[in-house]
Amino acid sequence: MESTRKILENRQLAPRKKLGQNFLVNPPTAMKMLDLAGFTATDIVVELGVGLGALTLPLAARVHRVIGLEVDAGIIRYHREEGTLPENVTLLDQDLLTADYRQLAEQAGGRLKIIANLPYSITNPLLFRLLEYREIMDSATLMLQKEVGERLCAPVDTKEYGVLSVLLAASATTRTLMRLGPGQFHPRPKVDSVVVKITFFPIPERVAKLPPYDPALLARVVKAAFGQRRKTLHNALAASPLLGLNKEEVATILPCAGIALNRRAGTLSLEEYVTLTRMVADRQDGLATAP
Known about the structure:
alpha/beta, Rossmann fold, 7-stranded mixed sheet, two-stranded antiparallel sheet, 9 strands, elongated
């Protein structure tokens, strides 16, 4: 197989820093990632960012169909002119951050099974995008920056614990599958990478046990809390424009949720954030119906 570097040179392509492109160059790593992803021969899998096909080709040999998204016009042209992709691969010219995931689910005939070597530059917004469509997600097996992967799986009261830690815990089970050094990619990134699997369905038992709450409000509460994570919750929530609450209102809500005013964002569990969200909702509903 022609090397990644040679393909890029021959086609006058170059890894685009703007797109955060770091191409996987080690075939055994791709095979191991697919082994751990657990796809079956009947699956239809969506690949976010086809690149030169390091994951696409072995994936297509294992599953029923691959729907591949790619935004780099030069790479799309390379695949179409050279006929590099198997017949069971559908290549779509779509941006990962603006793609219609509901339409992709319709094409896949059910919940989305996703795989990706994610560009570092769009990892965070893409993760929030997947959370936005969590009800149509089955799983996402993602290769991403080690630091981000640690945040996704971080336990409470650690420096890595943050907004994505909480919101993913409220929607899915996340676990690290493997770790990768910079030598697995071209060009070599300056940091290590990890592969994580986010399982949205079946709904994790911890998530199923949560009382009813507004997911959009939970996201605002968590973002408000971590917006100034070094401050107490009392000050952070009152200072955030996301909730529209003043200090007096926050001072009333926190005790009702069983949370001390001097707690900080990183010390609250998922269950505490859900309770807090329900109390904020009650307060906002009360204000909305007040004469």
